[in-house]
C-alpha cells in the first residue's frame, strides 16, 4: 500500500530562490507513479500555490497551516478565525503601528498602504503588495492573518491573545491562527477522509510551522536548511533543498 506524502512548499519543495528544482519535480512524478498520494502542506493560501499544483498535477493540499484542506479538488475543511478575535488583534496592532495582512482562499489584503515590512515580507513570496482594506475581515472569512512585527514584539501578542496562535515565518512577520491550529490538524482531516493513519504519512518541512507536522507523521523529514529546532523533532535529516534534498530523501526512504 502506498504512503501519503505531505510536502511543505517554501524551503522544501521550492528552493531558496522560490523555484521548483527539476529533481523535485521528477521525484514527485515518480512517487505518484509508485502509488503514493502526494499532498502539499503549506502556510500559503490556495491562490498562491496554483502554479505548482498545476505543474505537478496535485489536487490535494493543506493550506493556511491547517485551516483549509482540499482532497482531490474538493474542499473538506475550513477554519476561519473568529471575527471578534480579528477585531481585537486589529485594534491592538493599530495601537502598536503594526500592519496586518488578511488572507482568504482567493486574495490577501493589507491593513495599510506602502509599509516597508509588508513589502519585504510579501515580496519574499514573489507577490506584489496587496490591495488595502483595513475592514476586510469584517465582511470576509479570514483563514490566516500576518502581523508585521519583531520577534520580541510578537511576545506581546502571545500574552494578550492566548486564544490565538502566533508562528514566525519571516524576520519581519508571523502567522496568526486559531488556538491549536497546525498543519498536523489539517493532515489528520485529510487522513481521516481517505481512511489512512498518521503511520501512513511522511512529512517534509523546514520551518517552525512544520514542527507539529513532523512530530505527528509516521516519518518526519527535516530539510538540511531547516531551523535547528525543526531538525530536533525530525526522524530524518535530508540534504539542503538547493542540493536536491527532497528528491534524495525520497530516494533514500525508498519512495522512488
Automatic annotation (TrEMBL):
Keyword annotations of the record: Hydrolase
Entry GO MF terms: hydrolase activity
InterPro entries linked: Cof (IPR000150), HAD-like_sf (IPR036412), HAD-SF_hydro_IIB (IPR006379), HAD_sf (IPR023214)
Keyword Glycoprotein among UniProt keywords: no
Domain of life, source organism: Bacteria
PANTHER family from the UniProt entry: PHOSPHATASE YKRA-RELATED, PHOSPHOSERINE PHOSPHATASE
Protein name: Cof-type HAD-IIB family hydrolase
Organism of origin: Chungangia koreensis
Amino acid at each position: 500500500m502506498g504512503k501519503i506524502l505531505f510536502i511543505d512548499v517554501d524551503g522544501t519543495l521550492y528552493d531558496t530562490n522560490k523555484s521548483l528544482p527539476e529533481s523535485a519535480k521528477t521525484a514527485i512524478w515518480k512517487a505518484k507513479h509508485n502509488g503514493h498520494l502526494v499532498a502539499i502542506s503549506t502556510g500559503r493560501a490556495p491562490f498562491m500555490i496554483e502554479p505548482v499544483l498545476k505543474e505537478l498535477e496535485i489536487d490535494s493540499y493543506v493550506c493556511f497551516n491547517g485551516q483549509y484542506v482540499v482532497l482531490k479538488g474538493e474542499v473538506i475543511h475550513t477554519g476561519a478565525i473568529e471575527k471578534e478575535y480579528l477585531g481585537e488583534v486589529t485594534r491592538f496592532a493599530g495601537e502598536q503601528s503594526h500592519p496586518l495582512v488578511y488572507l482568504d482562499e482567493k486574495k490577501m489584503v493589507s491593513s495599510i498602504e506602502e509599509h516597508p515590512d509588508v513589502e519585504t515580507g510579501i515580496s519574499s513570496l514573489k507577490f506584489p503588495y496587496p490591495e488595502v482594506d483595513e475592514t476586510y475581515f469584517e465582511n470576509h472569512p479570514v483563514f490566516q492573518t500576518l502581523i508585521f512585527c519583531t520577534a520580541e514584539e510578537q511576545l506581546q501578542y502571545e500574552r494578550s491573545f492566548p486564544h490565538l496562535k502566533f508562528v514566525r515565518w519571516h524576520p519581519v512577520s508571523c502567522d496568526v491562527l486559531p488556538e491549536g491550529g497546525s498543519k498536523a490538524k489539517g493532515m489528520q482531516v485529510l487522513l481521516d477522509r481517505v481512511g489512512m493513519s498518521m503511520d501512513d504519512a511522511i512529512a517534509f518541512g523546514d520551518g517552525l510551522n512544520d514542527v507539529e507536522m513532523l512530530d505527528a507523521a509516521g516519518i518526519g523529514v527535516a530539510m538540511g536548511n531547516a531551523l535547528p529546532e525543526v531538525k530536533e523533532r525530525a526522524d530524518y535529516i535530508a540534504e539542503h533543498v538547493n542540493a536536491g534534498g527532497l528528491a534524495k530523501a525520497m530516494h533514500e526512504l525508498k519512495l522512488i
